[in-house]
Amino acid sequence: MQGTNPRAARIAALIQRVIASNMESTLHDKRLKNVTITDVKVTNDLQLAKVYWTTISHTGNDEGERKRAQTALNQARGRLRTMVGAKAGLRLTPQLQFIFDEVPGEAHEIDDIIVAARRRDEELARMRANAQYAGEADPYRHDEDETEDKIESLEHEDKDEYNEYDGDVVTVEELEDFDDDEDAVDGSDDDPVDPAELDPQSTIDGAQD
């Protein structure tokens, strides 16, 4: 069972400090240059210490770097255990087990995904802001445009029917001449003359003729 008592927690924190400081100052192994100790868990019986580590450069993605670091830690296990025992003053120093920590790598990948998604969103926003239609300002027709076209078409049809005339166009002068002709016709249609009203002599002369 892993450390759930205060003493196991204190020893775990001590092991983490000792290993981290000696990797930099004592081991001098290039394979451990980017290695970071992320956590240490000690069992309640103090028999085993699980040491979790990762790499600063890019956790877990460089498989070759990860394997080289794991090999270097395993090779330095004895020396590091001796350093921990000397520093902690323990009668029995826990065995060290180095385990690659997947969590920081996954968190780093999630951060990369979030950053990439944010950059894509910003780029799309800039493209939308700078976008211009080819040709018309808006090449797509909308429902209101079709309604206006129908109204204009009906208005034109009404005007055409109102202005439509099958015969010739009559000018104002022709209308005035037409009125004068009607007056002339009306003037020639006088009432019949009563023969009794005529001059007798004129009647005789007319009969002789």
UniProtKB/TrEMBL annotation:
Residues 160-197 have a biased composition (Acidic residues). The keyword Protease does not apply. Pfam families: RBFA. Residues 200-209 have a biased composition (Polar residues). It comes from the Bacteria. The keyword Zinc-finger does not apply. Keywords: Cytoplasm, Ribosome biogenesis. PANTHER family: RIBOSOME-BINDING FACTOR A, CHLOROPLASTIC-RELATED (PTHR33515:SF1). This is Ribosome-binding factor A. The lineage of its organism: Bacteria, Bacillati, Actinomycetota, Actinomycetes, Bifidobacteriales. The gene is rbfA.
